[in-house]
Amino acid sequence: MSIQSINHLNLRNKKVLIRADLNVPIDGSIISSTSRIDASIPTIQYAIDNAQIVILTSHLGRPTEGSFDNTLSLKPIVDYLQDKLNIKIMLHRDFEKGQSFEPGILHVLENVRFNLGEKECSNELSKKYASIADIFVMDAFGTAHRKEASTYGIGEYINEKCAGLLFYDEVKALTKTFDQPKKPMLAIVGGSKVSTKLSVLKNLINRVDGLILGGGILNTFIAAQGFNIGRSLYEVDFIDEAKYILNEIEEKQIFFPVIEDVVCAKEFNINAHAKLKKIHDIEADDMIFDLGPNTLKNITNHLGQVSTIMWNGPLAVFEFKQFSSGTETLSHAIADCEAFPLAGGGDTIAAIEKFKVCKKISYISTAGGAFLEFAEGKKLPAIEMLEQ
Ligand code: 3PG
User: Does residue 58 have its Cβ closer than 6 Å to ligand 1?
Assistant: First the structure.
């Protein structure tokens, strides 16, 4: 690989700034999944053990730049790290160029997205980050597709830069799989909006041999196929794009499952009454929340014919028991098939954990969007920055 890992550099007497992706789901002050933080700990610990001063930062959510938002503070994450690491931690609301950071303490800088210029990758902010450290350690693989001041801009102004252990391992594992994927390759892409994954879908159809869609994305495609989808979540403005992709799928002879049946309800809540319907029988007030058994059979029968499976996004509303069968059946079918499955993204990891198939998934990435962009063959800005 053409990027350096933290353990290729000498950190002695050095001030190290680690950009991690600690963007975890937080309910009040309770972290509902700590997997991203846990995956970041080896790099943080390595830096604590080897460098003189360690400064850590991350984004959390999407706050408005220029103002502090208590609900998106890194405080709950600092509390969690305090339990896991044997070191005093100090959370800094602001930092200044030239500020001195005491050794023997893990310094955490507040949510980078509170800082003006973070998103647009301003030179001023990038320089300010670079001014507080000797070495920049990029470990936020989940944010590697963002060209922001703390993930990309800093690289231009810092003395030395490298990947953290998590970042390095992700790039290594994903390069190995996606540079020359074992064919046939199947992509499973779930999610609510085609608009957020349009470029991914357009690029993926040039790389994969099969495509399975789920959630609101699939609803838009069902509507594009000419079926009534009632009140289901979909994007009317993307019907033409969906038609274009369906056309390409047909021309390239990519596997795309026939949607024969779906599970519907008249309302969206935990007690909603689920009803199995043929795709032709959807009524004006129905909403699609899961796939039916015949459709699932069309999907699972195909898994035996593929060698690589790339999975991002659940098939349906798996959080509600009555609509979880599609994602559960798919999870077990993926776990039990002969193919090499890779999965990424917060919701996908939550589904894998819920249906207890983690051990059978060959590779689980901490990234969602970055994982997908890597899979579609794009060069991620943070990787480009580390290679420069
Ligand atoms: C993610 O959760 O996918 C990453 O942390 C990136 O977050 P973002 O989509 O808000 O940039």
Answer: no
Q: Confidence class of residue 345 from pLDDT cuts 50, 70 and 90?
A: confident
Average pLDDT over the chain reads 95
Decide: 210 in ligand 1 pocket, CB within 6 A: no
Supply the pLDDT for residue 141. Answer: 98
* Nearest atom of ligand 1 to the alpha carbon of 345: 3
Mean pLDDT over 41-62 rounds to 98
The predicted model gives 316-331 an average pLDDT of: 94
> Mean of the pLDDT values across residues 141-157?
98
Could you tell me if the CB of 368 is within 6 A of ligand 1? yes
Q: Decide which of 365 and 196 is more confident.
A: 365
pTM of the model as a whole:
0.87
**Measured from the CA of 369, which atom of ligand 1 is nearest?**
3
Q: Determine the distance separating the centroid of ligand 1 and the alpha carbon of 346, expressed in angstroms.
A: 10
In three-state form (DSSP H/G/I as H, E/B as E, the rest C), the secondary structure along the chain is: CCCCEHHHCCCCCCEEEEECCCCCCEECCEECCCHHHHHHHHHHHHHHHHCCEEEEECCCCCCCCCCCCHHHCCHHHHHHHHHHCCCEEEEECCCCCCCCCCCCEEEEECCHHHCCCCCCCCHHHHHHHHCCCCEEEECCHHHCCCCCCCCCHHHHCCCEEEECHHHHHHHHHHHHHHHCCCCCEEEEECCCCHHHHHHHHHHHCCCCCEEEECHHHHHHHHHHCCCCCCCCCCCHHHHHHHHHHHHHHHHCCCECCCCCEEEEECCCCCCCCCEEEEHHHCCCCCEEEEECHHHHHHHHHHHCCCCEEEEECCCCCCCCHHHCHHHHHHHHHHHHCCCEEEEECHHHHHHHHHCCCHHHCCEEECCCHHHHHHHCCCCCHHHHHHHC
Pocket perturbation via mutation, ligand 1, pick of 58, 60, 138, 143 by most ligand atoms within 8 A of CB? 143
pLDDT range class, residue 32, cuts 50, 70, 90: confident
Distance 143 CA to ligand 1 centre (A): 6
Is the minimum distance from the CB of 142 to ligand 1 under 6 angstroms? yes
Q: Which atom of ligand 1 is nearest to the CA of 21?
A: 5
pLDDT at 176: 85
Ligand 1 pocket check for 312: Cβ under 6 Å: no
